[in-house]
Design brief:
The complex is a heterodimer of chains A (342) and B (606).
Chain A (H helix, E strand, L loop, with lengths): L13 H12 L6 E5 L5 H11 L3 E4 L16 H8 L6 E4 L3 E3 L6 H5 L1 E2 L1 H7 L4 E2 L2 H4 L4 E5 L6 H13 L1 E6 L2 E6 L3 E6 L8 H6 L2 E5 L5 H16 L1 H7 L1 H17 L7 H14 L5 H16 L7 H12 L12 H14 L2
Chain B lengths: L7 H8 L11 H14 L1 H4 L1 E5 L4 H13 L6 E4 L5 H5 E3 L1 H7 L4 E3 L1 H4 L4 E4 L7 H13 L1 E6 L2 E6 L3 E6 L10 H4 L4 E4 L15 H11 L6 H13 L5 H17 L7 H12 L23 H12 L4 H14 L3 H9 L24 E7 L7 E2 L1 H8 L3 H10 L15 E6 L4 E8 L2 H24 L3 E8 L2 E9 L2 H9 L9 H17 L3 E8 L13 H17 L3 E6 L6 H10 L2 E4 L5 H12 L1
Helix pairs in contact in B: 2-4, 2-10, 2-12, 10-12, 11-12, 11-13, 11-15, 12-13, 13-15, 19-20, 19-24, 21-22, 22-23
The chains are: A alpha/beta (342), B alpha/beta (606).
């Protein structure tokens, strides 16, 4: 597998980096959608983040179950083992980051009859798909707006329920599939289906930097990386390590981060002002702010955190006006400025 | 190894006129230089977008380019309608049946590792195919998740995209263009110019060896990045490519460090074709004569002085080199401010999505016979056959046949059914004539915008036709990009006569082609019905209206769903008559606000 560009060497694009880190700290936020110009390092950042994530403990089963998970999140094998009173042996494994490539067929995504075993042994066995592999990790879809509709449909259901239900070829399988959905794309190539857009917790817009020093820095780093990836990664190892420790610390801190009533109220006001549909926006806003607080080592969520994540958490939840090119971002910013004062 | 145009034939090209400035003299030499530089650093430069119609010039370039490749490097040509299986890889049916277990077949992109991919008719390539290519490009590997196979295979290759597009609207997808360092246009090169090539494969081999040791210093980097910014090139890939190409140029010329001349090459070949604006300070009248033929020598002269130059001056030199290569017509377009910031070559290529009915949601698999037109689902067939293999093997053994092959019988055949969701395309035919403009072109625009929003929710495609003055034109071919639709609409000027028949004709033509591709067109005509220009451009109300009615009858004959929105201040007899001839709904909207209009269309189109 090609060496990914180090996450810490991604220049600028602070909103994207922050959102990805928050999603890594709190998977329940529901993933990140990165939309924007070409050549802004969308997939670079995502692959880079994947490479530096801290390892996780996993049972040696098909789905890499969490040995400490409650029964309903375990796969059938692990549940049976636990019910039988056996301990679930586990080991450290890298967090899975699974690519859902365009052109994937449905059988590979949701899983299907294992062809090899069926042909050679005549056995009916389930061969898990990408959704199974992405359990507890990240599912990354580049050019998500070009994904075939029928794949989007399968994804939506699984992303919402955290479970993949396979009913085909005489198989009936249910397995856990909780993953952080990360999508990227370029709006010029087509809009994203609203239903899919809603599934993403945070939505980020990336733009090409327009100032010369930043542009030079990007080109210089990228060039150095491509000349000698190994040396480059070695050089950025410590920086990446710092980010990894930051994530680890934030994860430990997260459960103890307090959200005072005043902050909750503020979040509610903001969502009301913007007229976001349903409670999802509010919930994501709070969660993202809490993730950010943890990331910054704070134990209480305050206005500052809300302000910083509001745009990412809400811009894709406003009542849609597809013709408004930059409208939703500025609408959120305006509302934030009005509410919090500048 | 001098790339200066030395042959007299090239000089004649200038006197003869037409090939415009910049695209003139050294165009062929630059095209060859691009081929050589790409060969020096295929992965770093991504490849060449080659704009030219099929013909001897293109053939000559391609054959020169192929000769420059190392003999062991693979070379694959990808046809327009390549299937995913062939492109990315999939199940090898013959081998699988033979071996009795799934055997993967390598895709074209994997086979091309370390070499070159030629894309035939690249301007027609679908966004889906392009996305698969760019994915492999960006990650350096081909990820396969198909037919029960999962593989990642490293693959790095350069692409030569053969763009046979004509005119501004037809061309490579931006996603692809952005990833190819060189944009070469052979359109204005004549056959007798396309001869010389000063490079041979040995040069390339030597240059490749030299390439690793070459880097840009800070000033050079700043010069290239600054130039890109000054020329209004948003994508950072362009700057990166420029750096690569400068290094490749130095390597090719046998230098051990990058010189100003190399930067000039990079600016000319990489940055100039991408320019979307001229640097603000510079005055340059569009009629300025073509750059003098001795331009390359000039650069060489400058070269010695540039050693001591400040970065700003270096940047200016690079900028000049880029400007000299910007074709004159682009220049004049820029000055007129008519060039759109990004040439909107996004998708929305008519029917790119509809063209592929086998991409729909597979609506299950049927047991069935193989007839032509049906698609055998190999994996499902094998899955169906699998459980029986032991039995069949034993049966064969009883008959004395020893074989481990998979036996597939007729019963096992599984056919994929596709539910083809017929996509709706709403064609707006907007009357932009003087009389309409007077009344409420602005209001009609507002209404169309609201309808567009509705189309967005329904994932419909939209197309825009305007008619005014002497005729009708397609402002926007069917697209899903509503942002484009809005932008186009906003720029629609009003005024002139009302060539109603031409407008309806054009709408019908588009509707017809949509129908032939399996889509469902809806025609929405917004007019005040006051036709006064006939099909041939002549004036005269009576004839113009008669023709319009005839055109409307054609709509009814084809049983298209249509609607006439009367935008005149008071409901007119003409509008009603027209709607009747068309078999269309008639919506008089004396004081329509956009919301009411939207509501009406929603009801009418379901």
């Amino acid at each position: 597998m090609p060496i990914p560009f180090p996450f810490s060497a991604v220049v600028a694009q602070e909103e994207m980096k922050r959102s990805l880190l928050i999603a890594a700290i709190d998977p329940s936020i529901g993933g990140v959608l990165v939309f924007g110009d070409r050549g802004t390092g969308k997939s670079t950042a995502i692959r880079g983040l994947a490479a530096l994530l801290p390892k996780m403990r996993a049972v040696d089963c098909t789905y890499q179950c969490d040995p400490e998970a409650s029964d309903d999140v375990l796969c059938e094998d692990c549940r049976a083992k636990r019910a039988a009173g056996r301990t679930l042996k586990s080991r450290q494994v890298p967090v899975p980051v699974v690519d859902l490539p365009l052109g994937a067929t449905e059988d590979r995504v949701i899983g299907a009859l294992d062809l090899e075993r069926a042909l050679t042994k005549g056995e009916k066995a389930f061969e898990p798909g990408l959704l199974a592999r992405a359990h507890r990790g990240f599912l990354y879809i580049d050019e998500v707006n070009l994904l075939e509709d029928h794949l989007v449909d399968s994804l939506l259901d699984v992303a919402a329920s955290g479970q993949n239900l396979v009913e085909r070829e005489g198989l009936s399988v249910r397995h856990p599939a909780r993953f952080v959905l990360v999508g990227s794309g370029n709006p010029e190539e087509g809009e994203l289906r609203p239903q899919l857009q809603d599934r993403f917790g945070l939505s980020v817009e990336v733009k090409t930097p327009q100032d010369l020093p930043t542009r030079m820095k990007v080109v210089r780093l990228r060039d150095a990386f491509e000349r000698d990836p190994n040396a480059f990664v070695e050089k950025w190892k410590r920086q990446d390590g710092k980010v990894r420790r930051q994530i680890q610390k934030a994860r430990e801190l997260l459960p103890s981060v307090e959200v005072p009533d005043a902050t909750l109220e503020r979040a509610g006001e903001l969502c009301m002002k913007l007229g976001t549909d349903g409670l999802r926006g509010e919930l994501t806003l709070i969660r993202a702010a809490r993730g950010l607080a943890a990331l910054q080592g704070d134990t209480e969520v305050v206005d500052r955190h809300l302000k910083e994540v509001a745009t990412s958490a809400l811009r894709h939840r406003l009542r849609r006006d597809p013709l408004d090119e930059s409208g939703s971002t500025s609408r959120v910013e305006r509302a934030v400025a009005e509410l919090f004062g500048e | 190894m001098n790339m200066t145009a030395a042959n007299p034939a090239a000089d004649q090209g200038v006197d003869a006129g037409p090939p415009p400035a910049g695209a003139g003299l050294s165009a062929w030499d630059d095209a060859v230089l691009a081929a050589a530089l790409m060969s020096v650093d295929p992965v770093g430069t991504g490849g060449v977008a080659l704009r030219a119609l099929a013909g001897p010039v293109r053939e000559q370039w391609l054959s020169l380019m192929r000769d420059l490749q190392p003999p062991e490097a693979p070379h694959r040509r990808i046809p327009l309608h390549v299937s995913d299986g062939r492109l990315l890889g999939g199940l090898d049916l013959a081998a699988t049946l033979n071996a009795g277990r799934p055997i993967a077949e390598r895709g074209l992109l994997v086979e091309a590792d370390g070499g070159l991919v030629e894309l035939a008719m690249a301007e027609r390539i679908s966004a889906h195919t392009a996305a698969r290519l760019t994915m492999a490009f960006d990650s350096g590997e081909v990820v396969l998740e198909r037919d029960g196979l999962a593989m990642r295979t490293p693959s790095r290759f350069a692409v030569v995209a053969l763009d046979e597009g004509v005119g501004e609207d037809e061309g490579l997808l931006n996603a692809l263009l952005d990833r190819l360092a060189f944009h070469v246009d052979l359109t204005h090169i004549r056959v007798h110019e396309a001869i010389a090539c000063d490079y041979d494969p040995e040069d390339v081999v030597q240059a490749r060896a030299r390439l690793a040791g070459l880097t840009l210093d800070e000033e050079q980097l700043e010069a290239l990045c600054g130039t890109a910014l000054a020329l209004g090139i948003p994508s950072l890939r362009a700057s990166l490519f420029a750096c690569r190409v400068a290094c490749a140029s130095a390597a090719l010329e046998g230098r051990d460090q990058v010189e100003a001349e190399d930067l000039a090459v990079a600016a000319r070949l990489v940055l100039a074709p991408r320019a979307t604006q001229l640097p603000p300070s510079e005055e340059q009248p569009p009629e300025e004569p073509p750059p003098p033929p001795e331009e390359p020598e000039e650069q060489e002269q400058n070269q010695s002085e540039e050693q001591q130059q400040e970065p700003q001056e270096l940047e200016d030199t690079v900028l000049d080199a880029a400007k000299a290569a910007i074709p004159a017509d682009l220049l004049s377009q820029l000055q007129l401010g008519t060039l759109r910031r990004s040439r909107s070559r996004a998708t929305g290529k008519a029917g790119a999505i509809q063209n592929a009915p086998t991409r729909g949601r597979p609506a299950g698999v049927l047991r069935g016979e193989l007839r032509s037109g049906l698609k055998l689902n190999v994996v499902e067939t094998l899955r169906a056959a699998a459980p029986w293999q032991r039995l069949r093997r034993e049966e064969r053994a009883r008959r004395g046949i020893e074989s481990s092959r998979i036996e597939v019988r007729q019963d096992d055949f599984r056919i994929t059914r596709f539910k083809h969701r017929s996509e709706t395309t709403t064609i707006f035919m907007v009357d932009a004539s003087g009389s309409s403009a007077l009344h409420r072109l602005a209001e009609a625009k507002g209404a169309v915008e609201m309808l567009l929003a509705d189309c967005y929710v329904r994932r419909d495609q939209v197309a825009l036709i305007a008619f005014r003055g002497k005729g009708a034109e397609v402002l926007l071919p069917p697209t899903r990009s509503l942002v484009r639709a809005k932008r186009t609409l906003a720029g629609l000027p009003g005024g002139g006569g009302t060539p109603l028949a031409s407008g309806i004709d054009l709408g019908m033509m588009m509707a017809d082609s949509i129908q032939r591709r399996g889509g469902t067109p809806i025609l929405i005509l917004m007019t005040d019905g006051r036709a006064n220009v006939a099909r041939d451009g002549a004036g005269g109300r009576a004839r113009a209206f008669d023709e319009a009615k005839a055109a409307a009858r054609a709509v009814r004959a084809q049983e298209m769903s249509a609607m006439v929105i009367d935008t005149s201040p008071r409901p007119q007899q003409q509008g009603r008559e027209l709607a009747a001839e068309m078999g269309a709904r008639y919506l008089p909207l004396p004081h329509a606000d956009a919301g009411a209009l939207n509501q009406a269309v929603r009801v009418a189109t379901g």
